[in-house]
Write a structure and sequence with these properties.
The complex is a heterodimer. Chain A is built from 20 helices and 30 strands. By secondary structure, chain A is an alpha+beta fold. The mean pLDDT of chain A is about 95. Chain B is an alpha+beta fold. Chain B folds into 2 domains: about 80 residues, Roll (Ubiquitin-like (UB roll)), CATH 3.10.20.30; about 70 residues, DNA polymerase, domain 1, CATH 1.10.150.120. Helices cover about 35% and strands about 15% of the residues of chain B. In chain B, helix 2 crosses helix 5. Classes of the chains: A alpha+beta, B alpha+beta.
Chain lengths: ~800, ~160
């Protein structure tokens, strides 16, 4: 297996990013910076009840307020638009921007005001009188699963959105043959990645052209499609401007309901309309919460520590409006056995609806909770056998000579060297000394623990989980397109097809174009086409852009290079195989004095048709659309299918101390080794991994969207929803390993999610190691200090 | 209430505009004055994305009314660049260390870091953590931000010698 840095000029070299300059000088253009002439501002009225029938809405006083242009309720909007997209086959679950007849969670929007300013809109909102009849909500997901519980969507007939069972391999035989088994429940409570920028959008209907222009803080596939579908207008009547800087997303910026709401208002009023969530909108009514999951897991294992089989039941609470959220139960199938040689798996995935705000995809698309559960299982087997947590992982690791490795659900892992990465993190942590430090803290009567966790990061998603969970959706591609052009003066422009939200895609495109064409990346301009001019895209989700956009732009560069070589061959009257390409100049191999420079070739291409080879089109431009590697096949007769092509790997080792009096957890150290194949830009990859770990620390220790038993939302502010600051996140120390993927243009894999996949499991492992001398264990996240204090001292 | 005329100095230039007394400094800067570098994150003083310097001190622009800033000197991220318009050593260090990703919290981070470096040219890691402890970043996990501020301090000290 290859394991070395590639021989490159720009790829994998430390270089500044293209994007950072505009951000450090305050010149980013975020959706809040978009101003349109005559623009109106929207505020939405939240429902105060978890579940209520809407009898009447009287907005006459609001409408009469000076500066108010329109007040919209759910009845008008429902009559004029289609329900929003839902991924599952659940026609009775109707998601709309404004509640219609029934409001389904505390915070759901029931009316909207368009006014000259947001302040006036909020003032007017307070004058809207809604006559509600509150009814019993269902808040607990296990209660929601029971027949007879209050129905969130009566038209659907139950609260179960999805309940599917999968068996891969001889599960019963493996359990019968194993020396031991254990079972446990693990709970991942509701949290999200909560970007500092809330969601916002501006919509402007042009009646003359029949086009809806949209500027939005968006990160989602098929956004324009969903706008068009809900508004009942052709897809080519929606133009999303994708050069808006997105202030963080990590999966969650999916404001489709906001966009349809303002799209409708813009068409109705023929004015540009802006809706920027305030923080209360965002937390309580934005339909942007993450997975909320209960795992019941059984593990079959032998006395030597080998884990043979798993039975997993995952019950996930999607809230009132699921959208694409439930598919987060499907993606983890891609790495359902993690990096281990587990032989068989039974998996039951259940998604229920409750009276909470809706669920969206969050960083890792459901893999973070599943990896947390899986790593808890490994730690528990180690504890049951009295075995070292690193040794048990080593024994169960898939070995470097086993790739490509087909795991039980049919997905082949492309490449990896898990033992080498584990060795690197142990060396980085100086593991024996770290253990000695932990033991010294313990000897002083305090609690300390070391965490051990690994994770696989599936990258380059092919969307096949959608087919697994809804066979009506026979979708077998999740492609990405890109375009590259060289103008008559030799300047290069790369055209990407989607927004960016901090992942450095402009740098990615410029670096790869520069590498492939031998030109300086800093001189390459990268632009974001709008949706009417862009090549096909599925947006920056699924840890896919290095793989997919990287592949697309590499393909475009190859086509450009072929055009350049053809022009050179024609003008130098020399066969292609005798030409040498270097930095954009082309020369004859045996007679370097005969050459064409980059500028000469570009000039010929754009200005001198008489010097072009026969059949060549003028100019230098190329488009390339890349299909997901290995993707495109429906499941075989046994239900096995390739989900995701590329698999990155990480090993995490944190050291924590717990104050035995208060239960407060302090992260003293955090070490990580990662392998995401070839790194295109080291600073970008490092930043995403470290940032993912911080998200993981938040999910493990602090972050929770809390609902009271009666359904009131209790975490609508940053004073209630606690996120890690510099006081909570240690100076994480990182190292890398490189096992290139054989499936991608430069050996790259995904790197945007792994920190968040391994982090929660690692912190949980550390906290449990710290609690183990007291015989205590926690199998839920977040492990807040109040929970730990109660466990230690027995006082609630 | 009726709008009042408010005059303040923003990034060295005297600016006047009308605003109701309830308008925050943040909305005043971003709206009537069109100075959009400071960002709205939480509007309740926790995240720090709206940080600006008022008379050299870091302030949450979402927690201060515009009328309270009348007559005062306000510096936003746009005012950190040198007189030639080039990024400052601090801004360059954020680029060198990639101390950002999406760029949304970055103006507030830079303001907090600038306030630190104005007071303490040789901050240690704990000083830096304290200085930006009220600024939430969801992208970076803070490591590269801390490295950027250390680098800026080093570069500034070297330049001063």
């Amino acid at each position: 297996m290859i394991s070395q840095a590639p021989n490159t000029r720009y790829v994998a070299r430390k270089r500044r990013t293209q994007e950072d300059k505009r951000f450090v000088t305050g010149r980013g253009v975020f959706v809040q910076d978009i101003e349109r002439p005559g623009m109106l501002h929207v505020a939405a009225l939240p429902c105060p009840y978890p579940r209520a029938r809407i009898n009447n809405i009287d907005f006459s006083a609001a409408l009469a307020m000076p500066g108010v242009h329109a007040v919209l309720d759910g009845a008008e909007l429902a009559a004029a638009t289609n329900p929003l997209y839902g991924g599952l086959k659940t026609p009775g679950v109707k998601w709309r921007p404004l509640a219609f007849e029934l409001s389904r969670y505390a915070g759901e929007w029931v009316a909207a005001v368009a006014a000259d300013s947001r302040a006036i809109a909020e003032d007017a909102m307070e004058l809207i009188e809604v006559d509600y009849t509150p009814t019993d909500p269902v808040i607990d997901p296990e209660e929601a699963y029971q027949a007879g519980s209050p129905q969130v969507h009566p038209e659907h007939g139950s609260n179960v959105l999805y309940d599917g069972e999968f068996t891969w391999g001889p599960v019963d035989d493996d359990f019968a043959a194993a020396d031991h088994s254990l079972s446990f429940r693990a709970r991942w409570h509701r949290s999200s990645t909560v970007p500092i920028e809330t969601f916002g959008a501006v919509a402007e209907w042009d009646e003359g052209k029949g086009i809806l222009d949209v500027w939005a803080s968006i990160q989602m596939p098929n956004y324009a499609d969903q706008i068009a579908g809900a508004m009942g207008i052709p897809l080519n009547a929606v133009r999303v401007h994708q050069d808006v800087d997105v202030g963080g997303s990590y999966g969650v910026k999916r404001g489709i309901k906001h966009t349809v709401l303002i799209g409708y208002l813009s068409r109705k009023l023929e004015r540009p309309i802006r809706l920027i969530e305030d923080r209360l909108d965002n937390m309580g009514g934005g339909d942007a919460h993450g997975p909320d999951r209960i795992f019941d897991t059984q593990v079959a294992y032998n006395a030597d520590g080998m884990i043979k089989s798993l039975k997993i039941r995952a019950l996930d609470d999607a809230g009132a409006y699921p959208g694409r959220g439930p598919f987060q139960l499907g993606k983890p199938i891609a790495a359902i056995v993690g990096p281990y040689t587990i032989n068989s798996v039974h998996y039951e995935a259940i998604s229920v609806t409750t009276n909470k705000t809706g669920q969206v995809p969050v960083r890792g698309f459901g893999q973070a909770p599943t990896n947390y559960m899986l790593e808890r299982a490994v730690d528990k087997v180690a504890a049951a056998l009295g075995m070292d947590r690193i040794e048990i992982r080593r024994r169960n690791f898939i070995q470097p000579d086993q790739f490509p490795y087909e795991q039980p659900s049919g997905t082949k892992y492309d490449s990896g060297n898990y033992p080498a990465v584990m060795d690197k993190v142990l060396a980085l942590a100086n593991f024996d000394a770290l253990c000695a430090r932990r033991d010294e803290i313990r000897s002083e009567g305090r609690l300390a623990g070391i965490g051990v966790a690994t994770c696989l990061e599936p990258g380059g998603g092919n969307n096949m989980f959608e087919y697994l969970m809804n066979p009506a959706a026979e979708i077998t591609t999740f492609m990405e397109g890109a375009e590259a052009r060289i103008d008559g003066e030799g300047c290069i422009t790369g055209v990407m097809a989607t927004t960016t939200s901090g992942q450095g895609h402009e740098t990615l495109v410029a670096t790869i174009l520069g590498e492939e064409l031998g030109r300086e990346p800093d001189d390459i301009r990268v632009i974001h086409a709008d949706t009417l001019t862009a090549m096909p895209t599925r947006s920056p989700v699924a840890s896919r852009m290095a793989i997919m956009l990287g592949g697309a732009i590499t393909g475009a560069a190859a086509k450009l290079k072929a055009q350049i070589m053809a022009i050179a061959a024609h003008n130098l009257e020399t066969p292609l195989d005798q030409l040498e390409y270097s930095g954009g100049d082309v020369s004859v191999r045996n007679d370097p004095s005969r050459k064409l420079t980059w500028n000469e070739i570009c000039y010929i291409a754009h200005k001198q048709y008489h010097r072009l080879p026969e059949g060549a089109a003028p100019g230098l431009q190329a488009q390339h659309v890349w299909q997901v590697p290995l993707g495109g096949q429906l499941p075989d007769a046994d239900g096995k299918v390739q989900l995701y092509p590329c698999f990155s790997f990480q090993a995490h080792i944190p050291l924590v101390e717990i104050d035995p009096g208060t239960g407060k957890v302090t992260l003293l150290e955090y070490f990580i080794a990662h392998d995401c194949g070839t790194v295109i830009n080291p600073d970008i990859v490092r930043g995403m991994i470290l940032g993912g770990i911080a998200h993981g620390i938040g999910a493990a220790l602090y972050e929770k969207f809390e609902y009271a038993p009666d359904g009131q939302f209790l975490s609508a502010t940053f004073a209630d929803y606690l996120m890690p600051s510099t006081f909570e996140v240690p100076l994480v120390k990182d190292t890398e390993h490189c096992t290139p993927s054989p499936l991608t243009s430069h050996g790259q894999k995904g790197s945007g999610e792994g920190g968040y996949l391994g982090g929660p499991a690692a912190v949980a492992s550390a906290v449990n190691d710290a609690l183990s001398p007291r015989g205590l264990e926690i199998d839920q996240l977040p492990m807040r200090m109040s929970l730990i204090e109660e466990l230690l001292n027995g006082t609630p | 209430m009726k709008p009042r005329s408010i005059t303040l100095t923003v990034n060295g230039a005297k600016r006047t505009a009308a605003a109701e007394p309830r308008v925050t400094l943040l909305d005043f800067l971003r709206g009537p004055l069109g100075v959009t570098g400071a960002h709205m994150g939480c509007e309740h003083g926790v995240c720090g994305a709206c940080s600006v310097l008022v008379e050299g001190e870091p302030v949450r622009a979402c927690l201060m009314f515009a009328v309270q800033a009348a007559g005062k000197a306000v510096t936003t991220v746009e005012g950190l660049a040198g007189s030639d318009g080039e990024p400052s050593p601090l801004q360059e260090a954020f680029r060198d260390a990639h101390g950002l990703q999406c760029g949304y919290c970055t103006p507030g981070m830079l303001i907090a870091a600038q306030a630190l470096l104005d007071e303490n040219p040789d901050p240690d890691e704990a000083d830096i953590r304290e200085a930006i402890g009220g600024n939430i970043c969801r992208c970076t996990g803070y490591v590269q931000i801390i490295e950027a501020i250390k680098l800026a301090a080093e570069n500034l000290r070297e330049a001063a010698q």
